[in-house]
Amino acid sequence: MAFSMHSHSGQFCPGHAKDTLEEVVQSAISHGMQTFALTEHMPRDSDDDMYPDEVSTAPLRPRHERFLIEAAKLREKYAGKIKILIGFEGEWIRPCYAGLMKELASNPVIDFYIGSVHHVHAIPIDYDVVFYRKAREVAGGSDERLFEDYFDAQFEMLNALKPRVVGHLDLIRLLSDEPNRDLREIKGVWEKVVRNLKVIIEQGGLVEVNTSGLRKGLKEPYPTRSVCEEFLGMGGMLTLSDDSHGIAHVGTNYERGIEYLESLEVKELYALDGKNGDMKSQVSVRSVTLASIRKSFKA
Asked: N or C: which end of the chain has fewer CB within 10 A?
């Protein structure tokens, strides 16, 4: 059963992604996806948190509401072809965002949200090298210090929100000087990684193997091998995501991602099940064999 727990569209993330939400769903079906989560970025509520291509954060909340309406329509329209989950990707910019995320998650149409960190010291760390280096200077001038601060922010997010899915756990690697470095080599960072993995285990969360890292030039998906090995050794549950930003990305590098998982001797992954029309129910977790993903996925 091919699936993805993380996706975006240009319709509701303009400038950040491409194509309409329905086109993304249609692409997922064409690639043999049987479960697909629609998880546009959550609205931010402060103009201090705008990206360079944005004028104001004011339109973001109304756009989020339109996304939920469209996603619900598509879930019903394509119910016979694909199981659609509706969620959003969280933004942990500062602790006050916990309240906004919980408010957004209270909408009964929402199945789950992804717990992600894209900012450290309120500065985006995956937007471009300029922003990354600015965050690094604030953190003390080294990748190691910024990595530590990133995983501390992630720790805060985990404890405040207990997300069902943790997004691109080691995203901080992307624009660093040595993005493919084994995190075990950096003692202070590794201790924080292990601490966070233990929290995720305790909370029953899923860590996504996110293949977007491959299309962005990394040698391995998020998270890197050492992190996956540690998490699996703890009994942790991995899920799978393409983190697509339009139809060109749906299922991108899934074949390489499957090979990566096979090299880790992974036999099964885990996916969330939707509420199946019962808006008051909670989503459950189901196991999916890696062999069935390989069999059903269409490149």
From this structure: C
